[in-house]
Amino acid sequence: MNDDDEQSALLLALTTEHFVLQSAASTIASESATRATLYVMSLSSSIVALGFTAQSETAFVPLAAGVIPTVFLLGVFTVVRLIETGAQNMVFLRRMVRIRRYYRDLTPEAATYFGTPGATETDEVLAELGVSVAGRLAPYFTLAMMVATINGIVGGSGVALLAVAIFGTGWIVAAVLLGLAMFAATIAACRIYQQRTWHAGGW
């Protein structure tokens, strides 16, 4: 096989790999959206059910005791998977950027069609995604963090309701503070796990 044949074979292989990576990234994005939607729908249905029983303490307390922990646990599972799919998607996008950098260097005029390369593959991916928030604030603008925020409210509300049920309405301020602590702990746990996953992926 001469140099031209090798170049053609490599280009064909890269084109195929680019298509496969793009399909995989689309599948990952679809899974993430589906999981987030299922969680929000489950939460909405649970809130409606709790609303119907709010006037009856004998019905509300057992239902809330079963529904709130279940929804919160579902939220935890959803957040963990969203962080994982986000990391997987970044891997696919970085590999596509690597291939596009090869395309960009094929001919002198190719750079016109494939844009300006970023300082790193990750920077180039973020630029293509339109992500302008960087640094310490970046972890708070992901889909996983959005779901974690909602789930933190669920967990905080559950803890506050539990505290009121145990200690009575005279401890409402303490119950609210416990709920806020649960909310903060949920956000912090999501951020730590997300950051560790990002670091493990090298970005």
Structural overview:
With 203 residues, this protein is mainly α. The protein has one domain (3-200). The chain has helices spanning 3-52, 57-104, 111-114, 121-129, 143-167, 172-200. Helix 2 runs antiparallel to helix 5 (143-167) and helix 5 (143-167) packs antiparallel against helix 6 (172-200). The chain starts with a helix and ends with a helix. The relative contact order is 0.11. The mean pLDDT is 86.
Summarize the structure.
The protein has helices at 3-52, 57-104, 111-114, 121-129, 143-167, 172-200. With 203 residues, it is an all-alpha fold.
Total domain count: 1
Sheet with most strands: none
Count of DSSP H/I helices: 6
Outline the low-pLDDT stretches. none
Radius of gyration: 24 Å
Which secondary structure elements does this structure contain, and how are they paired or packed?
Blueprint: H1 3-52, H2 57-104, H3 111-114, H4 121-129, H5 143-167, H6 172-200
Helix pairs in contact: 1-2, 2-4, 2-5, 2-6, 5-6
Identify the notable features of this structure and list them briefly.
81% helix, 0% strand, mainly alpha, 203 residues
